[in-house]
Specification:
Elements (H helix, E strand, L loop, with lengths): L8 E2 L10 E8 L4 E2 L36 H15 L16 H12 L1 E7 L2 E8 L4 E2 L3 E7 L5 H22 L3 E3 L6 E6 L1 H5 L2 H7 L5 H8 L7 E8 L4 E2 L1 E7 L4 H14 L26 H10 L10 H15 L5
Parallel strand pairs: 1-3, 6-11, 7-8, 7-9, 9-12
Antiparallel strand pairs: 2-10, 4-5, 10-12
Helix pairs in contact: 2-8, 2-9, 3-7
Length: about 325
């Protein structure tokens, strides 16, 4: 069902046993699945407001690689090389060959923010796009990196610089507090090799008490067709995120790993779906871009515009979106 995909889409409204909370899942690099389940994460800790925005790390910043996990690392290296040969994984965030107007931006926002790509039928995950409410964070977002023992010090330092700068960029774009923290956090980013990810169940249950077995298995049994994912949770089944967990494969080569950080952290802010209409954008199954593009920046700004609210749906949101899209693009139609 997901063969050839790098990411999973966001699923919303999965009910699990125990206390209630919603979780959205998104899988990254080429395809994204925001995923939502229902359980009750711990009370989100207070996190500091984001620091003054810093420039995003350039594509060349991640230059170190995790120790090769044999065939898995070779597999992802071949994929990256083939994509580059095919002209994919572009790092030009404002491509002159892909202009777009306000109506395009409006439509892409509806597809990416107000639709889910996958849904649960019983315990099965099915590709079935469905309308969804707008979801986003209300509390400050404190991101915390956790590296598996397989990840060398040089890669940890490089990735920490990247995520710190990207968190500040997200804060500037959304006008919402987002920062990298070494203390209490509500957005956990786990960088793991294959063996570490397969054994992550106890840690995942600690981060998200009440998580159901099906959701846990999505992480521990992640197929090679998926490079990374993010799970975003909302207490009591509301449309407001309170906790998130991102999984990044440590075996990924540098550019693909950076693309996962860009895509999963941005999607974890409340952009759960992918769409072929999203160009130029990370939120497209084609893996055309490896960095957040200008269209993606506009999508994040619109997502946190105070004229919209968590829970709003397409019919009510359309006229508001049309006005906002026209404003951010200077009246272009």
């Amino acid at each position: 069902m997901l063969e050839g995909r790098d990411t999973l889409p966001a699923l919303w409204g999965r009910v699990v046993r125990g206390p209630v909370c919603a979780v959205a899942l998104s899988v990254g690099l080429g395809a994204c699945v925001p995923f939502t389940t229902t359980q009750s994460p711990p009370v989100a800790p207070t996190v500091p407001s984001a620091p003054a925005p810093e420039p995003a790390a350039p594509a060349t910043e991640i230059e170190t690689r995790a120790p090769r996990s044999g065939a898995i690392a070779a597999h992802f290296q071949r994929i990256e090389e083939q994509r580059l040969a095919d002209g994919l994984l572009r790092t030009d965030p404002r491509p002159a060959d892909l202009p777009f107007a306000a109506r395009d931006l409006e439509e892409v926002f509806v597809r990416v923010a107000l639709h889910d790509e996958y849904t649960f039928v019983g315990n099965r995950l099915l590709e079935q796009e469905t309308p969804a409410p707008l979801r986003r964070w209300r509390v400050p977002v404190g991101m915390r990196l956790e590296f598996g023992d397989s990840v060398p010090a040089a890669m940890r330092r490089a990735d920490t610089r990247l995520v710190s700068g990207f968190a500040a960029r997200l804060a500037a774009l959304t006008d919402h507090p987002v920062s990298l923290t070494s203390g209490g956090a509500n957005f956990h980013i786990l960088v793991l090799d294959e063996a570490e990810r397969r054994a992550i169940g106890p840690r995942l249950r600690n981060l998200v008490p009440g998580i159901d077995q099906v959701t846990e298995n999505i992480v521990t049994d992640l197929p090679l067709s998926v490079s990374c994912l993010v799970l975003a949770f909302s207490r009591s089944g509301t449309d407001i995120y309170t906790d998130a967990v991102a999984i990044i494969r440590a075996e990924l080569p540098d550019l693909s790993r950076m693309a996962c950080y860009h895509e999963e952290l941005a999607q974890g802010m409340g952009l759960p779906n992918d769409s072929p209409r999203a160009r130029p954008s990370l939120f497209n199954d084609a893996a055309e871009f490896a960095v957040l593009t200008d269209m993606d920046e506009y999508l994040l700004r619109i997502l946190y515009d105070p004229r919209l609210r968590p829970g709003i749906r397409e019919r009510e949101a359309r006229p508001i979106l049309r006005q906002i899209a026209s404003e951010v693009l200077g009246g272009q139609s």
